[in-house]
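BUG: 3D viewer hangs when loading the predicted structure for this chain

Environment: internal workstation, default settings.
Expected: structure renders.
Actual: progress bar stalls at 90%.

Input used:
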Amino acid sequence: MAEQGPMSPQRRGELEERVDRLGRQAHLARIAGRPAEAERFSAEELEALDVLHASRPWDEYTQQVLAGALYNRSALLPDLGRTDEAVAAAARSVALYERLLAADPGRIAPRLADVRGRLGLLHARSGDAAAAEEHGARAVEAYRDMAARDPRLRPGLARALKQLATARFECDEPDRALHPAREALETYRRCDVADLLEGLDRGEFGMLALRVADLLAERTDHDRTGEALAAADDAVTQLSHHVRNGNGGHGPLIRAMCVKGLCKAALGDPTAEQEYVDARFLADTWGIGIGAAAYDRLAELAEALPPAARDDSAAT
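Structure tokens produced before the viewer hung:
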């Protein structure tokens, strides 16, 4: 779509309107669960932006819009099994934001950290553990510095920590994932108390809490079991909210309830039985769609209860 000669103001205005329209269409298609359609709009948006950028490569506004479009594209391509293309889009977005950083650090630094965090996670999913660690750690470092100066940026720190922890889980390094995961959950709690949850996905943090609870529940010492119980309780709280808002997560919620019950049983807490009763009721209500993993956890919790408690629960 290369164009010859200088671009007229009218043509530039037409392309800018096209970019704006296609960006909205891509966003709406993605949240409606139509990733292929979203990708088509995104590709057309990017094509128009490349023409605008080529006509004025020095224009900082166009570079910002292009970097943002690439960031958005890097989020939808993995849904289509195109992770390598998503890595390339995110890497190009990083390069653009790095060039823009000096001109407006207050606006650009959080965006650069956001795309770095995503790039780290994408590298993890494509099998490049070293690149995943580099970009994820740099995103955390950047947000830690920014949040220390402006507490309103704590949600960004929570998100970057979550991405780094998830990347380490993806790279099969669960023990190394625990530290950023714990800090992510603690930062998330502080954001919740301070009413700073805007832009954070409860479901994602619920899943991270479940992952931490699962890992810690495998350990045998009581200190870890208590921490696993706290993480499982976090997971139940966040995933319950996610389910109530129609966002899915039924199976993970039941698994979180079961892990919570298992931790209570290990600690001798008699309310473990009620966790089983509640989880089994939801499983019976929602049916087989909750997935085999949830049923496996239910069976595991049932085995952890005293025989009398299991019998009483079955009669409920």
